[in-house]
Amino acid sequence: xxxxxxxxxxxxxxxxxxxxxxxxxxxxxxxxxxxxxxxxxxxxxxxxxxxxxxxxxxxxxxxxxxxxxxxxxxxxxxxxxxxxxxxxxxxxxxxxxxxxxxxxxxxxxxxxxxxxxxxxxxxxxxxxxxxxxxxxxxxxxxxxxxxxxxxxxxxxxxxxxxxxxxxxxxxxxxxxxxxxxxxxxxxxxxxxxxxxxxxxxxxxxx
Length: 206
Known about the structure:
By secondary structure, the chain is mainly alpha-helical. The chain has one domain: Four Helix Bundle (Hemerythrin (Met), subunit A) (Up-down Bundle). It is built from eight helices and no strands.
């Protein structure tokens, strides 16, 4: 009964519920960046690299699910759309957990390049971060509406309109995140990356 009442309250007040969840997310991220949440272990370089690769994989699968969900709703395949979008949202929660552990453990690094490419990287990174921040309440609102309303009820809400903005910003943010990851870890950080893998290669030869 308590669960039913809670769901009813969220359904009746989706904006308030979305605002609360968004603020909690912002507090968690900002608290981690500011070092106010001393709950993360200090990470070694190999662990940082592993987390970076895991995050990239999660984001790639999330982007794939997001684009599939977008295509399915345009075809009127509501069940597939719902499954794809919930998969994408679940993966973003996984991404957030991995990213906070990485940042909280001191796992940030700079790209090994200068000149125009460096500034292009910074622009893409800035847009990625900005869209990630701005998209949070919009994405959460779309998800809250989707979880608390039936397909017929959703037609009377702003779900479709908000969802288009949420999916667009979310997809672009994920795509830019993947591109900047590739630049940082594989295109302009190849030597550094190979040096980090050297101990593993040595162990494998023994």
